[in-house]
């Protein structure tokens, strides 16, 4: 029976455990490039014991970023910074992963702490956002006109996916994920709320998932076969007019047939009009992950409220999912895996990191508390 700390093998890659640092947009890039901040962020989490480490979603075009301060992989000049990230992650014993995406009609934003409103196309830091149809995301901050992509523009984006995947391989990444969730471009093509096209990219579920399948095909042409190709799918819009989870089951069956190796399940976020009740539930996506494993036959990763070690361990032990994705918990605690191992009573929790780091942590000269870690939880006396 696997547990949170069991190795995990997919294609030609073996992760040292089932704990993943999820992609998180950090707004620290200049010209889309990774820099010292990203080396610090990814390297420290790899040193802290994570098995798989992602930087933020990386945009396949400049207009695919969330803001001008977000990362990209649309220029060969960005490979150098990305290679620095993969090098430190590998040096610290983890596997470097990359998530490719395009923010679509949710791009051209201010940073969250500056208001997160969408900038007009003529703003110096803004641009014309795009989508499957001329439908703004809406809400308080996203009401600028949306350019509906032409067929030729869609084909151009698929070429951009392929070029980004080539750069990712050159930079040393060993795991590639396509971002089709969170209201970004792939998610909006999948959702009938955002996609009201009448051509081969709209209407039926098969048409609405065509964008995804062609992106998978384009990436598969250049991405090494020995490395996993996965996708984060917006599997529920939490709105009766949008994507339902049964739609995601059908879509993933089609993606599996095109070469998808793992499904990373999240929400669609294609409209502000959502039922938010599921968002706050602990392990909110785990049972749905189990359905994908059973009904589609794909391995599954999920995020959403798995930051309690006992919960994260349980969903792996019960074989509901294969990998635990942690976002904010990874920001809050760079050594979350080591802390989780101590909380769960695992022998030699420091063995989760590289040997020279672990040696110093194992060989304490004083009491355990002098190391500066909180005391591990002890089971209640019987």
Can you characterise this structure?
Helices cover 31% and strands 12% of the residues. It has 382 residues and is of the alpha/beta class. The protein has one domain (8-362): Alpha-Beta Barrel (TIM Barrel). Strand 3, helix 1 and strand 4 form a beta-alpha-beta unit. Helix 1 packs parallel to helix 2 (79-91) and helix 2 (79-91) packs across helix 3 (151-171). The protein is globular.
How big is the Rg?
21 Å
CATH superfamily: Aldolase class I
| Overall spatial form | globular
CATH architecture: Alpha-Beta Barrel
Strands across the major sheet, in which order? 5-7-10-11-12-13-14-3-4-6
What is the secondary structure topology, with strand pairs?
Layout: E1 8-10, E2 13-15, E3 19-21, H1 36-47, E4 52-53, E5 58-59, H2 79-91, E6 95-96, E7 98-101, E8 130-131, E9 147-148, H3 151-171, E10 176-180, H4 185-190, H5 205-208, H6 210-220, E11 229-234, H7 245-257, E12 262-266, H8 286-295, E13 300-302, H9 309-317, E14 323-326, H10 328-332, H11 336-343, H12 355-362
Parallel strand pairs: 3-4, 3-14, 4-6, 5-7, 7-10, 8-9, 10-11, 11-12, 12-13, 13-14
Antiparallel strand pairs: 1-2
Helix pairs in contact: 1-2, 2-3, 3-6
Summarize the structure.
The protein is an alpha/beta fold and 382 residues long. The protein contains 12 helices and 14 strands.
Notable traits:
single chain; 382 residues; alpha/beta; TIM Barrel; 10-stranded parallel sheet; two-stranded antiparallel ribbon; 14 strands; 31% helix; 12% strand; globular
């Amino acid at each position: 029976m696997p547990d949170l700390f069991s190795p995990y093998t997919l294609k030609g890659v073996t992760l040292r455990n089932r704990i993943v640092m999820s992609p998180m947009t950090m707004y620290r890039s200049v010209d889309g490039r990774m820099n010292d901040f990203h080396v610090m962020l990814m390297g420290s989490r790899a040193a802290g014991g994570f098995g798989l480490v992602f930087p933020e979603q990386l945009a396949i075009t400049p207009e695919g970023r969330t803001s001008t301060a977000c990362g990209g992989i649309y220029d060969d000049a960005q490979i150098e910074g990305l290679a620095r990230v993969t090098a430190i992650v590998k040096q610290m014993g983890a596997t470097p992963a990359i998530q490719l995406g395009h923010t679509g009609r949710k791009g051209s934003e201010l940073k969250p702490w500056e208001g997160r409103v969408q900038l007009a196309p003529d703003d110096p830091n803004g641009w014309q956002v795009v989508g499957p149809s001329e439908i703004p995301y809406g809400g308080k901050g996203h009401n600028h006109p949306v350019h509906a992509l032409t067929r030729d523009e869609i084909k151009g984006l698929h070429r951009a996916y392929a070029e980004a995947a080539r750069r990712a391989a050159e930079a040393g990444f060993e795991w590639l994920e396509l971002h089709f969730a969170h209201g970004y471009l792939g998610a909006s093509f999948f959702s009938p709320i955002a996609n009201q096209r009448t051509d081969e990219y709209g209407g039926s579920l098969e048409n609405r998932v065509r964008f995804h399948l062609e992106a998978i095909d384009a990436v598969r042409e250049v991405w090494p076969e020995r490395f996993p190709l996965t996708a984060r799918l917006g599997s529920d819009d939490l709105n009766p007019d949008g994507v339902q989870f049964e739609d995601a089951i059908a879509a993933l069956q089609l993606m599996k047939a095109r070469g998808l190796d793992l499904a990373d399940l999240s929400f669609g976020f294609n409209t502000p009009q959502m039922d938010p009740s599921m968002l706050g539930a602990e392990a909110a996506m785990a049972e749905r992950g189990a359905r994908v494993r059973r009904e589609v036959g794909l391995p599954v990763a999920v995020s959403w409220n798995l930051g309690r070690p006992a919960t994260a361990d349980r969903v792996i032990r019960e074989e509901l999912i294969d990998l635990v994705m942690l976002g904010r918990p990874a920001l809050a605690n760079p050594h979350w895996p080591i802390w989780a191992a101590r909380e769960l009573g695992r022998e030699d929790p420091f063995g989760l990191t590289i040997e020279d780091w672990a040696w110093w942590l194992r060989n304490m000269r004083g009491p355990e508390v002098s190391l500066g870690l909180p005391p591990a939880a002890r089971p209640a006396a019987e």
